[in-house]
Design a protein that fits this description.
The protein is α+β, with helices and mostly antiparallel strands and about 150 residues long. The protein has 2 domains: about 35 residues; about 110 residues, Sandwich (Immunoglobulin-like). The chain is built from 2 helices and 11 strands. Strand 4 and strand 5 form a beta hairpin.
């Protein structure tokens, strides 16, 4: 009889601990999302010669890049290296909550190399995916990158 009561108490305590752990996980996730909302691009559909506004939570990564409909990737913000000047220096970008990008004048670099020249980003209609990261040259295995999509109409 004493053994059965001990087993029952252990089961009850185990279930209480499991419920408590699930509650803590759910609450911390909800709290983290409330404090760190995801990045958003406005408007989500944009035309030539209009301005895109990218809203980012703080803190955020120091690098910004974009995938184009032609499957080209452009680096926009990164740490300057030797003779390579980014369109937006990382030190400046990391402190921005909001970035305005004019579709007519926005440029990026296809590679971070001495031979890279700034190219216009918005050249064809389609979906553009903006990514904020601590390091754009590595995989986002932990899911920390911020992403927003924009549909550009030429």
């Amino acid at each position: 009889m004493i053994i059965n009561n001990t087993k029952k108490r252990c089961l009850v305590i185990g279930r209480l601990i499991a419920v408590l752990v699930l509650f803590l996980i759910a609450n911390s996730t909800r709290h983290a999302l409330a404090e760190n909302p995801r990045m958003r691009c406005e408007p989500q559909t944009i035309k030539a010669r209009q301005t895109l506004t990218v809203h980012m939570p703080m803190p955020h990564g120091g690098e910004l890049g974009v995938w184009t409909p032609e499957n080209k990737f452009f680096f926009i913000a990164f740490e300057p290296e030797q003779d390579i000047k980014p369109p937006i220096p990382m030190a400046k970008f990391k402190n921005l909550r909001m970035l305005k990008i004019n579709t007519a004048s926005a440029v990026g670099l296809e590679s971070i190399s001495r031979n890279a020249v700034p190219e216009h980003i918005f050249t064809v209609s389609g979906k553009y995916r903006f990514i904020v990261s601590n390091n754009l040259e590595t995989e986002d295995e932990e899911g920390h990158n911020l992403i927003c999509d924009v549909d550009f109409k030429r």
